[in-house]
Structure formats: structure tokens, C-alpha cells
Specification:
CATH class of chain B: Alpha Beta
Distance between the termini of chain B: 21 Å
Shape of chain B: globular
Radius of gyration of chain B: 18 Å
Mean pLDDT of chain A: 93
Number of strands of chain A: 21
Number of helices of chain B: 7
CATH architecture of chain B: 3-Layer(aba) Sandwich
Strand content of chain A: 35-45%
Strand order of the largest sheet of chain B: 6-9-10-3-11-12
Oligomer: heterodimer
Largest sheet of chain A: 11 strands, mixed
Helix content of chain B: 25-40%
Mean pLDDT of chain B: 92
Low-confidence stretches of chain A: none
Distance between the termini of chain A: 44 Å
């Protein structure tokens, strides 16, 4: 399948090309938004057409019997393992956001008529491992996560790939965070070589008095874009953190919209980006406060360190506000390492190369240390240091 | 007299402004030298020039340390050779653990000296003993380097680094600024502990208060980028009484 064939097609043509006879509303939404290209705001800094214009192999998504394991394991978009007692199953998706800004959100649903539903019971920690085994393939799947009111869940998301190449992964979550509950999602992606590119398109609904923490640690290569839409109800809270470390010519980042709908809702979005080589980082983030969201608090910040003269950070924090009764701030800084800090370390006998490493790791640690579980915090620190040290040998 | 550092006809600028204008100074090994002078005389520029600060461009003259010119050395080389600056305004570095930083610095120095690195447990024992002596809390081990430290804590942390790194030439740039009496006493005790007749101190100060705690052997008056007078500690009283304007170039 070559997805570029969907470019500039009307709903009828899209339905024909995808072989879809029903689900007209989704087809219409996709056709109205159009296949993303360089002019699409959230894909402006991302070479999306290059990724879409490839003849990918496609897979038959046949649900397998799920073995018992210590984590949820999804291989090429099919669940193979799950912890005992956890409800994980495949079903048609009935709760699709019909007002998402991302065409690939709809394309994902169109290509995945059956979603993976994960129902989280009680207070628990869940690990989700995504594995990819196929080269030159379009791997497409969608996951729905729902929790229960008054419960607190932490999910750790990790990725593995066999020796593959030129694969495109399209996946995403529809999350429904129940009233008075908390869901923490910690996502770690490390990849030193160019095995697959990835576009994830998420939708997160946060109900009244609920909290969601989305921490994304992306130390990958090649291309990846996380597209995120969060909607906050009354007194709901989102804390979104993005740590990006890129080198060589990788292009990765986040395009997001956080929408305050309920009164007293709060949002905190913090991006830290470390770019080396000819890498391009993306942080295109909008916080929108609607008329109904009086007494909102919104905070948005992006800090970037460029370690090479050819590195580039596209940082675009934006606030769109329709009321007066709120507290909101946003900011963005991009620069080199602080020379006063570098000199201080050197004045104590620490070499320039070592001082540079210490400062970069320190910059990253301020976000990593927000992961409260020390085992996972140590794991993320180790992953970052490994990737960074490999890229900065000597 | 055994000279550990000799500065001859030193000329240096920061930005477009020439600040040191043919400065001469000899530091006698094992002695305490105080540099006093009015605002803008070039005291801090002198300390920055000795440690190789990136702000300073040396225009002429030389600095020799143990008989070897250091003006072309990097800052870390000078530090490894035993030159230490206690900063007037130590920089905050969030995310860098204080103990990790100090152990990295100490082990870099030990490696330079051909000694084995200290492991984490050995280093912590060393650090804790000095913390106690300086009246510092044990959370200094885990806090980020200078982040959120009070003025007094920052200065004590500089002295802690000095005690652990055991440099040979120690430059104290306005070490007493912003310190209350208790902090000043603790900092002075730390400095006096290092006075063993081998280490050399260069105490840079506006006021004589610190010299009540750290007894100097020599007073050098710096004015308009030059040392205009060198004398014994008796010069302090004269400066207190008549000010810097009364001092004439020798």
C-alpha cells in the first residue's frame, strides 16, 4: 500500500482506495482534513510525504490467543501477552473523537476497524511493550485505554524492534481517564539505528477531577512524530513532559493541542530538547482555553540545547485564550550550553568534553527525575546516558 | 623567598576594556597575600586571568606558576596543576548532584597525579568529614550543585571543594561578601585549616573584615590595573584610616 495515493481524494475515492463500504463519517472526516503534507501545520517541520510515499507491505491483523505474561506485549500490532486478570481484547471502536485535528488519527481508525482495548482495574502498574518484526511494512493499530473512577494507574510503554528497516508504524491511543482517577503514562523510546519511523496520534479525554501525566522520553533516530490531543473537563489536570534527544539527521518531536473545556482545569506542558548533528526537533504545541473553562491555569515551556551548528529546533508554544479569568504562561528558549556552567566545571579540573556531558545529562535529568518510581527513573537515566555516550564517544 | 607564582607586566582586557595595565605580582609559597583595592581596580579580572576565564583576553606579559608559563593553558589544566578559584558568585547547575560533581573533579585530579580514583563510598566518607567541619548539612551531598543555596551555603560549598581538591594556590575572590558572622567564622576555619606553610593564598577583598580571620603576610594594593604598593599586614590599618586615595604608587 502506498498512502500517498490518498492525497487530494474525496470521500468516495478514499473509501474505494481503502476498500471501505461503511464508516462514512470517518472517511468524510479524513477526506475533509486531507492527507497531511508540508502545509499541514502540525506536520510542517516533518517530512511526512516522504514517509507516506512508499509501497509498504501490509499485514493481516488476526487476533491471537493471548498468553499470560508480566506485561502487555503487542507484536506488529497484535496482542500476544497480557498480565493475568487484565482485560485486553479486540473490538470495534465506538468512541472516536469526531473533532480531532489530525487526519492520520482518522486514517488509523479506518485502517484498524478493530482496536485493542485495555481495561485497567484498580490501582496498578502496567507495562506495554511494542515489538516490531517486519521490514518495509505499514504496521497500523489503535489502542483504547480506560480506567475506573477513583483509581490510580501507572503505565510504562517501551519499544523493541528486530533487525528491520524502512517500516512505518502508525498507532495511537484513545484514552478515557475516569472521574477522580489518575493515569500516568511513561513512554521510553530509544533506537540508535534507523529501523522504523513512527507517527502516533492520540486522543486523551480527562474527566472531572481526573489527572493524567504523559511523560515522553524520546531518544530515537530516524523520524517520529507524536500527535496529541487532550481535552480537560472540570478541575481536570494534565502534566505533559517531553524529553527529546536527537542526533545525526533524525527528525522527531511532538505536535499537540491541549484544550481546556472545564472550569478550574489545569495544564502543565514542559519540553526539553537536546539536538546534535543535523537533527531537527519539533515542539508545536497549542493550549486552547475555551469559554467554558473559567479559572484555568495553563503553563507551557520549551527549552532546547543545540550541540551542533547544524541542529535545528522548531519550537512553537502557543496559547489561544477566549476568557479573562485565568492564569497562563508560555515560553521557549533555544541556545547552546551555558558557558558559565561549563567554565565552573572546567575550573575544577573537569575536561571540556566531560563537562559538556555532565551538563547535558543534568538538563535531561530535571525531566527524568519527575518519574517517581526509582527503578523506572534509573532505567530511563541509563537509557539516555547510553544513547548520549554512544553518540559522544571520546 | 620561594616564588610559586610570578606575574609580570600583565595586560588584559574584557570586551573592549583594558583592565590590567602592566600588573606585577609575586606570590611567595606558603604565604597569605591579600589584594585590596577600590571598585574597578581590576581585582576580579586578575583572579579570572589567573584561572583562564573565557571573558579575559591577555594582551601582554606573562604568568608563571612553578616556573612554567600558564597563559596558554586551558582552565582545566590550570586547575589540575593546583590553581583554585573560589568564585565570588558560584554558578547554580540544576540537575548536577553536588557529590557526583566533586567526586568527578577529585578523580580527574587524582588521575592527573597518577593516583587511583576514589570509589563512591570512599568519597562519601571524605565529603562527610569535611561537611561536618564546615557546619554544613548532609543534604549537601544529594542537592544539585549550588541550586537554591543561600549565599552562605554557596561560599561554604566553595571551601568544601577547596578542602577536598587540596589545591596549591588558592584564590579567594570576595569570600566574605554576603556572609554573616557565623558563616564567616566557619569559612575562615576551613581556610585556616588549609594553611600549612605550603599552600599559597591570594585573598581578594574590598574590606579588611576577612583579614581579622585570615591573617595575611602581605598586602598588595591594586589600583587602575596595577599593583601600586606591597607591604606587611600593618598596611591594613593605614588603609582603614586614610583610604586608597592616600596610597601612592611605589
Amino acid at each position: 500500500m502506498n498512502l500517498i495515493t490518498l492525497k487530494n481524494k474525496n470521500a468516495e475515492e478514499v473509501a474505494t482506495l481503502l476498500g471501505i463500504k461503511e464508516r462514512n463519517l470517518l472517511v468524510e472526516k479524513f477526506a475533509a482534513l486531507g492527507l497531511p503534507n508540508k502545509k499541514t501545520e502540525e506536520y510542517h517541520y516533518f517530512d511526512v510525504e516522504k514517509l507516506l510515499d512508499v509501497d509498504y507491505k501490509t499485514l493481516n491483523y488476526v487476533p491471537k490467543s493471548i498468553e499470560e505474561g508480566d506485561k502487555v506485549e503487542i507484536v506488529d500490532g497484535v496482542v500476544t501477552k497480557a498480565p493475568k486478570g487484565m482485560r485486553v481484547y479486540s473490538e470495534p471502536c465506538e468512541t472516536i473523537d469526531m473533532d480531532h485535528f489530525d487526519a492520520l488519527y482518522y486514517l488509523g481508525h479506518l485502517l484498524s476497524p478493530h482496536i485493542i482495548r485495555i481495561e485497567v482495574d484498580g490501582d496498578c502498574h502496567v507495562e506495554i511493550l511494542h515489538k516490531y518484526t517486519q521490514s518495509e511494512t505499514l504496521i497500523n493499530y489503535r489502542i483504547v485505554i480506560s480506567n475506573q473512577a477513583n483509581r490510580h494507574t501507572t503505565m510504562y510503554e517501551n519499544f523493541e524492534a528486530e533487525d528491520i528497516h524502512d517500516t512505518l508504524v502508525l498507532y495511537g491511543y484513545d484514552m478515557h481517564i475516569a472521574q477522580d482517577s489518575t493515569l500516568r503514562m511513561v513512554r521510553l523510546q530509544t533506537m540508535n539505528d534507523n529501523k522504523y519511523s513512527m507517527i502516533t496520534s492520540h486522543k486523551v479525554n480527562v474527566a472531572k477531577n481526573a489527572n493524567v501525566l504523559l511523560k515522553n522520553f524520546d531518544f530515537g533516530g530516524d523520524q517520529a512524530l507524536q500527535v496529541l490531543k487532550v481535552e480537560l473537563g472540570e478541575r481536570a489536570h494534565v502534566d505533559a513532559g517531553h524529553l527529546l534527544y536527537l542526533n545525526d539527521d533524525s527528525k522527531r518531536g511532538t505536535a499537540s493541542q491541549i484544550i481546556h473545556r472545564g472550569e478550574h482545569s489545569t495544564s502543565k506542558q514542559e519540553a526539553k530538547n537536546i539536538l546534535d548533528g543535523q537533527a531537527r526537533g519539533i515542539f508545536d504545541a497549542l493550549i486552547r482555553v475555551e469559554h467554558s473553562a473559567k479559572f484555568t491555569k495553563a503553563e507551557q515551556n520549551s527549552k532546547s540545547i543545540l550541540l551542533h551548528e547544524k541542529s535545528y529546533m522548531a519550537s512553537k508554544p502557543q496559547l489561544e485564550i477566549y476568557i479573562d479569568e485565568l492564569e497562563a504562561s508560555h515560553g521557549s528558549t533555544t541556545g547552546q550550553l551555558d558557558e558559565k556552567q561549563l567554565f565552573y566545571l572546567q575550573s575544577r579540573g573537569i575536561s571540556y568534553i566531560e563537562a559538556r556531558k555532565i551538563l547535558v545529562i543534568a538538563f535531561a535529568n530535571t525531566l527524568i527525575e519527575q518519574v517517581k518510581d526509582s527503578r523506572h527513573q534509573d532505567r530511563i537515566k541509563a537509557a539516555f546516558e547510553e544513547v548520549f555516550y554512544v553518540a559522544n564517544k571520546g | 623567598m620561594s616564588t610559586v607564582m610570578k606575574i609580570e607586566n600583565l595586560e588584559a582586557k574584557i570586551g573592549d576594556k583594558k583592565i590590567l595595565k602592566g600588573l606585577n605580582l609575586e606570590l611567595e609559597a606558603g604565604k597569605v597575600h591579600a589584594i585590596m583595592g577600590p571598585n574597578g581596580a581590576g581585582k576580579s579580572t586578575l583572579s579570572k586571568t589567573i584561572v583562564g576565564h573565557y571573558d579575559v583576553e591577555v594582551l601582554g606579559g606573562d604568568i608563571t606558576y612553578k616556573g612554567k608559563s600558564i597563559v596558554d593553558m586551558d582552565a582545566e589544566e590550570r586547575a589540575l596543576e593546583g590553581i583554585f578559584l573560589s568564585f565570588q558568585h558560584p554558578v547554580e547547575i540544576p540537575g548536577v548532584n553536588n557529590a557526583y560533581f566533586l567526586r568527578t573533579a577529585l578523580n580527574a585530579k587524582r588521575k592527573h597525579e597518577g593516583k587511583e580514583a576514589l570509589n563512591a563510598a570512599e568519597f562519601l566518607r571524605l565529603m562527610k568529614s569535611h561537611l561536618e567541619m564546615l557546619g554544613m548539612k548532609s543534604d549537601m551531598i544529594s542537592r544539585s550543585l549550588n541550586e537554591g543555596f543561600s549565599g552562605g551555603e554557596k561560599k561554604r560549598n566553595e571551601i568544601l571543594q577547596m578542602l577536598i581538591l587540596e589545591p596549591e594556590v588558592i584564590i579567594l575572590d570576595e569570600i566574605d561578601s554576603g556572609l554573616d558572622i557565623d558563616a564567616l567564622r566557619a569559612v575562615s576555619e576551613g581556610i585556616n585549616k588549609m594553611k600549612d606553610g605550603k599552600r599559597t593564598f591570594l585573598v581578594i577583598t574590598h574590606y579588611s573584615r576577612i583579614l581579622d580571620y585570615i591573617e595575611p603576610d602581605y598586602i598588595h594594593v591594586l589600583k587602575d590595573g596595577k599593583v601600586i604598593k606591597t607591604a606587611g599586614p600593618e598596611l591594613v590599618a593605614q588603609l582603614e584610616e586614610h583610604g586608597y586615595d592616600a596610597i601612592e604608587e611605589e
